[in-house]
Amino acid sequence: MTTFPPVPAELFRFTTTDQAELHTAVMRVFGVANECLQTVLTADDVQQRLRGVGWSEQVTDDELTASLTALRGWGLLDASQHRYGLTKPGEAAYAGIRHAVHALTTDGALQTAVLDAIAAHLDELQKPLDERQAFTTLTQLEGHLEAFKTGTTRFNADLQRLLRDDQADLATFQDVKRTTVTYLRDFIAELDARKLKIREAISAIDPAELHERARNGAGLVPDQWLQQRKENWGSLRSWFCDNPPRVEELQDVSRKAIVQLLRVLDRISEQRKKPTNTAADFRSLARWFARTETEDEAHELFNAAFGLWPARHAHLAHADGELLPSGEAWHNTPPVPVSPQLRATGKQEHIGSTGKVRNVDEVRRNRREQAEKERAELEYAWSQIQTDGAIRISTLTNLDHDTFHRLIDLVGRALGSDPDSTGTRTAGTSDGRMQINLRNARGWATMTTQKGTLSGPDYVIDVQSR
């Protein structure tokens, strides 16, 4: 099984603390010094060089000492006689943040010049070069290959983000996508000839003999140098010689992106031709809703936008209203017939003018009060059911019938679910307000309400609000 080399847990800890910016600036001081072949610095040296790496704030000696101590504790610095230097993990951490900043601040690119450089170096390696020239040319080839892979990866990521982006300014959005289409077309126009030339050059080179000559020309090299060269050559072959080579996948991605971008551009052009756009209208309406300050303003805007005014048939009633319970839900009651002429002409079928539309404010107020009453009853019922921990159902007494009905509904939901490894069943109300955890318990439970008695198996329940 392939595994990645472990990364020390403390390697990037310095970037996540309250003093992350100061720690990073200190690491940059040591990194810049290393590039100038200065491997050790005193605290005074670090203090003097902070401004040179972009740190503009005043740092006290205590703050700098604390930062150096923390970096040393994380294994990024070592110290001897008040002189500090980067450890190997410290060099890796500094290289890591430089790479991260570079990746965040640069865009990818599909550079045909890089492909030409790869082909030119491969042609050079086919010539009878001496060992030093072979080492130099191979190193340059690998550098161009790495630049090509990095640029391609970033460009593809940028391209996919562009395809998903529809929030930018419309004019800018259109210009960027037109430029990208032209860029992709120019890249793939000569790609077939370039990849064929590179593939033929790779096939004409014996990698084992090349690597041996390059190693001899390199002088002192690490033990893993040859293995690294083999991996890099394998990467080169995977891009241009495999079946299919990865460069053809790049062509496919580019062609699909061109088609998708052209479709987006066509859609933008069509939207500009139309006097209005439904999606844009809804976005504008959403912005208006966001700017309303009260619920009444939001309702007024909703009515104005969708024309939901009081219905003209609100005064119609059932033929025998006394047969219907006052608390019955509207969707459970028989429908009331409404004449089609009421909408078409404003008159009912019987002779005579339609009565005036009555003021429904009183109806609304009564309905609002009824809804508030039902909400209060529901809150009371949930407060009665909620437990402070696990209890047996048999211990629950003095429940009114509505509360009892809701408890039984919760228990039924839990029994209908699958138990976990501990035998516990979990369920919740449809609105997500309450959750019950239920386990089997030995014994029998009997519960009595105003409307009767229910007996059944006892359970241990824990009912909590979410």
UniProtKB/TrEMBL annotation:
Ranges of compositional bias, category Polar residues: 419-429
Entry protein name: TIGR02677 family protein
Region (Disordered): 414-433
UniProt xrefs under Pfam families: DUF2397
